[in-house]
């Protein structure tokens, strides 16, 4: 007698193979997506750094944190700009350095990124919570 179709054993074996492949592929997919989003945040930070350097060359200093509004908005990251090395009683655009920080937003898939918050300062020094994230 010739049977048509698949036996239950064959279907279970096929389902097990698909499950194993999915278990291997899913973490790699998540890691790849995190790297892609981190790269996007880094590119946004570099664009902000260009704006800040242009401001420095025009005004002789970096703007105060409360007056600088050119920070990007991304779904997975929160950006922060801090002006540093400002003279006492200095006016706006008298800061001599800055620090940009991109922090993964809580409750997003990016929150589990091992690199955590990434930083960029006025001399181009790039940082993260672990090495090899830039």
UniProtKB/TrEMBL annotation:
InterPro entries: N_methyl_site (IPR012902), PilE-like (IPR031982), Pilin-like (IPR045584). It comes from the Bacteria. Gene3D superfamilies: Glycoprotein, Type 4 Pilin (3.30.700.10). Coiled coil: none annotated. This is Type IV pilin. GO terms for biological process: type IV pilus assembly. NCBIfam families: IV_pilin_GFxxxE.
């Amino acid at each position: 007698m010739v049977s048509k179709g698949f036996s239950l054993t064959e279907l279970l074996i096929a389902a097990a193979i698909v499950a194993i492949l999915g278990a291997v592929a899913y973490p790699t997919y998540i890691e790849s997506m995190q790297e892609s989003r981190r790269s996007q945040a880094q590119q946004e930070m570099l664009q902000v750094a260009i704006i800040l350097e242009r401001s420095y060359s025009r005004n002789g200093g970096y703007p105060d944190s409360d007056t600088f509004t050119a920070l990007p908005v991304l779904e997975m990251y929160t950006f922060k700009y801090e002006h540093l090395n400002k003279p006492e009683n200095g006016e706006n655009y008298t800061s001599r350095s800055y620090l940009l920080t991109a922090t993964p937003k809580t409750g997003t898939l990016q929150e589990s990124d091992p690199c955590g918050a990434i930083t960029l300062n006025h001399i181009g020094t790039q940082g993260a919570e672990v090495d090899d994230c830039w």
